Amino acid sequence: MQIVFDNNNCDTDAHSLWGFSVYLEKYKLLLDTGSNGRILLQNLQECNIDIQTLEYVFITHSHWDHIGGLDSVLELNPNLTLFVPSTLSKHLINDLKKFSKKVIVITEAQKLFDNLYTTGLLGEETPEQSLIINDEYPKLITGCGHFGIENITKIASKIINKNIKYAIGGFHLLRSSEEEIEKSIVSLKKLGVEQVLPTHCSGEKAIRMYKTAFGKNCFVGGVGRVELCNLF
Q: Of 8, 103, 139, 204, which shows the fewest CB atoms inside 10 Å?
């Protein structure tokens, strides 16, 4: 797994801006596209990812910092299947159908392909889908986690009938109090989460607290290659 767009940076040759995008080489899938297409394409190049090898794009939600690079990706590779939330503008969805191989509009939880699942859209204020990898060590990847990382994890576990072992992505704790952050940590541990990678909108305070709570099982996010104990 490589984080290719983030407001944090762990590779000095890549560029950080507000937003988020992750590349899963095994599935040829890009989760979200950050806020800026030019920077996304530069970071893909810096990470030695050939955009022509992409087959799928998974969009978590409609916010600008997660869909900003989509046009740039499609311009270079229109042979893509898109998994997009039904909350995107209908006009945008219709346009995407013209410039991609296929658009699958997501509302409910479902299997996508192989061992990949979507949680379906969760939350009313900012409906968002997250990606589940149902393998020997089940993983959850969120874009921002607006619905609450503990709530999303609980639902994801029910969808695949297994405990989520690895939670990755935006935990949406940037403006949360220490008490709220601690509650999320305790909840994840009770749900069976063993390893975490909070980044993007998780916030520096939450990242520090997660690092204290999970120790060596809390990994560093940011643009560039992220080593995850060969879990990917």
A: 204
| Count of residues in the chain | 232
CA distance 183 to 186: 5
Over 90: is that where the pLDDT of 232 sits?
Answer: no
Question: Given CA atoms 141, 51, 57, 55 in this order, what sign does their dihedral have?
Answer: negative
Q: Is residue 45 part of a domain?
A: yes
- Whether 218 maps to a domain, the answer reads yes
Contact 131, 31 (CB under 8 A): yes
Where residue 166 sits, what CATH number does that domain have? 3.60.15.10
Instruction: Output the pLDDT for position 224.
Output: 82
Quote the domain boundaries for residue 101: 2-222
- pLDDT tens-place string over residues 180-225: 999 999 999 999 999 999 999 999 999 999 999 999 999 988 998 6
